[in-house]
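Field reference: sequence -> structure
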Amino acid sequence: MYKSMIALVAAATMLTACNSNETEENSKEVTEKSEQPVQTADEQEAQNEPAQNETTPSADHEKWSSLPEYGQIIKQIGNEDYNFNKETDNDNKRVLLIDLKGEKQYKTIFVKNTNRLKIVKINGGGEIFNEVIK
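Structure field:
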């Protein structure tokens, strides 16, 4: 009898503890969402419309030239008027899509902790570069 009571109390305690963690996580999500700044309709329209003075390709290259992999990318694909678009940038890796005249040409994957750069030609070329850069 005592064993079953102990088991019942232990199970109830575990369920209660699990439920309280979920409640804390949910309240954190609600708090984070509510802390985001509210935008007016004019600000939202401005973000949705393309900018009148979009960055020129040379300004775009200046923006990306501070990346450690930029020099090797240009060395491999050439210095044309490519547009760089960030797909992913987190603690582990950075993925860029590179397009020319609106068509995706290359995908680059830079693994930050090993400095490995992979460049893939999207339209049938396959992997063109896969080395650790310095």
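Note: Residues 73 and 79 are 9 Å apart (CA to CA).
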